[in-house]
Amino acid sequence: MRVLLVDDDPALLEVLGAYLRGAGFEVLEAQDGEKALELFPRADLVILDLMLPKLDGFKVLEEVRRERPELPILMLTARGEEEERVKGLELGADDYVVKPFSPKEVVARVKALLRRAGLKEELCYGPLRLLPKERQAYLEGKPLPLSQLEFDLLLTLAQHPGMVFTRERLLEKVWGPDFPGIDRVVDVHIAALRKKLMDDPENPRFIETVRGVGYRFRETDAPQDSFADLR
Questions:
Q1: Burial classification of residue 68, based on how many CB atoms lie within 10 Å of its CB (0-12 exposed, 13-18 middle, 19 or more buried)
Q2: Is the whole model's pTM more than 0.85, yes or no?
Q3: CA 199, 141, 198: angle at the middle one, nearest 5?
Q4: pLDDT of residue 156
Q5: Structure confidence at residue 214 as a pLDDT band (50, 70, 90)
Q6: Cα 225 to Cα 86: distance, rounded to the nearest angstrom
Q7: Share of the chain above pLDDT 70, in %
Q8: DSSP 8-state assignment for residue 19
Q9: Which residues of 188-207 are buried (b: 16+ CB within 10 A; e: fewer)?
Q10: Calpha distance 55→53 (Å, rounded)
Q11: Residue 105 backbone class (left: φ over 0; alpha: ψ -120 to 50; beta: rest)
Q12: Would you say residue 227 has pLDDT above 60?
């Protein structure tokens, strides 16, 4: 798989590029928007910083989406730039990571986006195995009796390991934007999922509560380090 990494920071390109290559990816690099447009036809996924010289990331995103609407795109955004993230998502980005970030988390997001794009591979996290196409989940080799909503909720979280979902966002993604529900609906289904996953809320293997915000899926080998120099 070939990843196009677009950022004008040489240090970030060096560090993140090394992690991606260590995970088995071929890496193409661009330090400006014009070079990104030259290289993206050769990529299977794009990691795109929005603040770029010559041609900004929004213009690159629009052009890529026009030419290759199926290509997975992961945005890199600065802390506190919520409007940028919203605009990027509206233009068609699939996911985002806020700087500073852990390179290992970015690699995990890349793998999750590629899985979601193809739905050809299973998702495995320790004893948990998800088959998106078959809509089946297994724990320690045994099928999990999940409802449709429970499976959709688990899959949504598992496809974005480490990403925090607010209750409102989970309602929108799983139940739909027109669902007249309340946050408590999410909590009830998370509790049911945890019970079936035998997941202790105080010491979770899979679904972690982010107090005051929402929930995230925690990989069994999720990285705990953070690279403060990747800004």
A1: middle
A2: no
A3: 10
A4: 87
A5: very high
A6: 27
A7: 88
A8: H
A9: ebbeebbeebebeeeebbbb
A10: 6
A11: alpha
A12: no
